[in-house]
Design a protein that fits this description.
This protein is α+β, with helices and mostly antiparallel strands and about 100 residues long. The protein folds into two domains: about 1-40; about 40-95, IHF-like DNA-binding proteins (HU Protein, Chain A). The protein contains three helices and five strands; from the N terminus they run ααβββββα. The protein has helices at about 5-15, 20-40, 85-90; strands at about 45, 50-55, 60, 70, 75-80. Helix 1 (about 5-15) packs across helix 2. The protein starts with a helix and ends in a 5-residue tail after the last helix.
Length: about 100
């Protein structure tokens, strides 16, 4: 499912809301998660999972095309850990 499909589904399930309002809600939701992660905070959605940021140290890498060694700088990457409810539903175990 992509963002526009999510917006369409939420708008269809909530006919009392305008499509533009649903779109603003979804965009605000994602923007707040992004901003919290950018500040280094953890975002937990109970039953769904938790987003956090992990730091990867600088290292020596290899260009797969040429075989040449290259410096890979330190970077931060997003990390998602599923919640128990989500894992159980994916594995057919209803809680």
């Amino acid at each position: 499912m992509i963002r526009s499909e999510l917006i369409q589904k939420l708008a269809a399930d909530n006919p009392h809301l305008y499509l533009r309002d649903v779109e603003r809600i979804v965009n605000t939701f994602f923007e707040e998660i992004i901003e919290a992660l950018a500040r280094g905070e953890r975002v937990e959605l109970r039953g769904f999972g938790a987003f956090s940021v992990k730091r990867r140290d600088a290292r020596m890498g290899r260009n797969p095309r040429t075989g040449e060694t290259v410096d890979v700088e330190e970077k931060c990457v997003p990390f998602f850990k599923t919640g128990k409810l989500l894992r159980d539903r994916l594995n057919g175990l209803e809680s």
